[in-house]
Design goal:
The chain is mainly alpha-helical. The protein is built from 34 helices and two strands. It is about 65% helix and about 0% strand.
Length: about 600
């Protein structure tokens, strides 16, 4: 009977005009669905047909499918078959391959958990424990946490130290840190450092032993955590005896002086750095200090001598040329900059200055006097008026391609759609903007918002060049939920979308850095009810209620509202705002934080310009 059903299904799938064949994805997905319903026998039936009839299917060839086939054998209690499939290979996503610093591949991590579970069920304790131990990490990755929690609970039966690790990581109990060895404490310190919990990092490293006994990497983590906590004097004391060759420590010492506004000592320490990797970064910091104290000529001298120019250095040089009103230098650098960094938030500002210079406008340099929030809104609107629309062509090929990807998207599994995009089965040319638009539309129509946001970040350089493609970069997902909430709390929709863009990247199951869901609701207020706040409408409503209180508190000042919501009141109070609530970016010492603030400001400006 099952084979008769299979024949009918195959005939139905075959009655269609020319199109890309997605039958392999459909059959594989039927196996997934049967497994999810607990119908393991039928799941195995579909998987066997899938492997037999589609041996070159990309989900199978990439090893993605083998995990689920193994998992179904495991659910059927056929443990030897499950182990065989788990051991054959592990799927490696493209984004993992491209990571500069490799950590555990999520798919491998999940595989190891199930292998550990199988050996536990087979009463092969030693092998089981070996795999469970692999799941205890010394770095922060919220995606892995559910498996690590389970592993620690099992491992604590073999060694009490795992209970202490669990309590420290997941129950905020630092009272038991004296129960662990130095190496175990150092692993925990690295975990909390990556989690941006700097007070815990410092406390654990203090317990691990004296500063002088630590390795270089541990000292750097300790000092950088102190910088984040504004413990500048302590950093300066600890780095008092550093030598010329210790570039990382010289840099940290210089930052401490800079944060203390002792600019002469900061410059002195930056200038002592000889390491090739840090020398230009130090020069950038020196140039920025001179820019901050309005010595633009000195800033220019320092930055023009740098060996390896980058986006930050070139951007600062353009700002300096504006201040010095150096027409020739500005035009020369701008023409290179616009092609190398079309997605830079300040490209609109530079374009406007350039246009006025070409037109010999006497007020060409005036824009440089505005602060970041006013300038960004003014510049973005003018930038959008300066760029053209992309001519979207509805070719037969694109229609067929869209149909194939839409069919896969209709299976409601974003991983399958990503596999289809990665494969060579659909003649996708990801070098062309047209195919990139087709890919984006397939994600959006399938309501895979988190995945579409990640995908557009790969495409954003090209999309920034065209006015009608900017909505992909700054999307309005969850429109109905936002519209309902905006009317309820009377706050600008651009404010809500900016928060979602920055806090979660439209991931409704976001749980990074002790924040939950689309609008990053702080975990401390949710009372261990995480799942409740993953609901988009509940999360957006709760987040907007908090946003409204901050918005009213600051009398509608957008920038202050966004910074307090995202970073907290303490960070907000540490910034030097103008009377109108605007901010001079050069007053922010931390270059990463400065970049983040700039991104927030321009995100709001683009949302306001595109949709209002």
């Amino acid at each position: 009977m099952r084979y008769l059903y299979l024949i009918i299904l195959t005939i139905m799938l075959g009655i269609r005009s020319f199109s890309y064949n997605v039958d392999d994805y459909i059959f594989f997905n039927k196996g997934l669905e049967a497994n999810q319903k607990g119908d393991y026998k039928n799941s195995l039936f579909y998987y066997e047909i899938y492997q037999k009839n589609f041996p070159y299917s990309y989900p199978l060839a990439s090893n993605y499918a083998k995990y689920y086939i193994a998992k179904n054998y495991m659910d059927m209690k056929k443990y030897d078959e499950a182990l065989l499939f788990f051991s054959r290979a592990v799927y490696v996503p493209q984004n993992y391959v491209k990571q500069e610093f490799k950590k555990t591949n999520y798919f491998q991590y999940r595989r190891d958990y199930n292998v550990a579970k199988i050996y536990e069920l087979k009463n092969e304790k030693n092998k089981s424990i070996e795999y469970y131990k692999r799941l205890v990490t010394n770095y922060y990755d919220p995606q892995l946490e559910p498996y690590e929690k389970k592993a620690l609970k099992i491992l604590e039966k073999t060694n009490e130290k795992y209970r202490y690790i669990y309590e420290i990581k997941y129950q905020d109990n630092l009272k038991v840190i004296d129960k662990l060895t130095k190496e175990e404490l150092l692993d925990l310190a690295n975990y909390f450092y990556e989690k941006k919990e700097y007070e815990k990092t410092v406390k654990i490293l203090n317990k691990a032993g004296s500063y002088t006994e630590n390795k270089v990497s541990q000292k750097i983590i300790y000092l950088e955590s102190l910088l984040k906590l504004d413990e500048n004097k302590k950093v300066i004391e600890l780095t008092n005896d550093i030598q010329i060759g210790e570039a990382n420590f010289l840099f940290i010492r210089a930052v401490a002086y800079e944060q203390n506004k002792d600019y002469s000592r900061a410059i002195y320490n930056y200038e002592k750095i000889e390491d090739v990797k840090l020398k230009d970064r130090a020069a950038f910091r020196i140039g920025r200090i001179y820019y901050k104290i309005e010595d633009y000529t000195k800033a220019r001298e320092v930055l023009e001598k740098t060996n390896q120019k980058n986006e930050r250095i070139d951007s600062l040089l353009l700002d300096i040329y504006i201040k010095l009103q150096n027409r020739k230098k500005f035009i020369e650098l701008y023409n290179k900059f616009k092609n190398k960094y079309p997605e830079n938030p300040k490209i609109g500002l530079y374009y406007m200055v350039y246009t006025k210079l070409i037109e010999n406008d006497r007020n060409s340099w005036q824009l440089a006097n505005y602060n970041v929030f006013f300038a960004s809104n003014y510049v973005v609107r003018n930038y959008m008026n300066s760029i053209n629309n992309f001519e979207i062509k509805k070719t037969y090929k694109e229609e067929v391609l869209k149909d194939a990807l839409t069919q896969i998207g209709a299976l409601k599994n974003p991983e399958l759609l990503e596999l289809a995009v990665q494969s060579n089965n659909f003649d996708l040319d990801t070098e062309t903007i047209q195919d990139k638009i087709t890919i984006m539309n397939s994600y959006i129509e399938s309501k895979f918002y988190k995945e579409s946001f990640k995908k557009v970040n790969i495409f954003r350089r090209e999309f920034y060049r065209y006015r009608n493609l900017l909505h992909y970069v700054y999307p309005k997902y969850y429109r109905e939920e936002v519209q309902n909430t905006r009317k309820k709390y009377l706050v600008p929709q651009s404010l809500i979308y900016t928060v979602m863009y920055i806090e979660s990247g439209f991931d409704n199951e976001n749980n990074k850095f002790e924040k939950l869901g689309l609008m990053g609701i702080p975990k401390k207020i949710v009372k261990n009810n995480d799942e409740y706040y993953y609901n988009p409408q509940i999360n957006i409503d709760t987040g907007t209620e908090i946003l409204k209180k901050i918005y009213d508190k600051h009398n509608g000042m957008i920038l202050k509202t966004l910074i307090e919501y995202i970073y907290g009141e303490k960070v907000l109070k540490g910034l030097n705002f103008e009377l109108d609530g605007d901010l001079k970016l050069e007053t922010i010492v931390d270059e990463k934080f400065q970049t983040e603030i700039e991104e927030i400001v321009y995100t709001y400006a683009f949302y306001s310009a595109i949709y209002n």
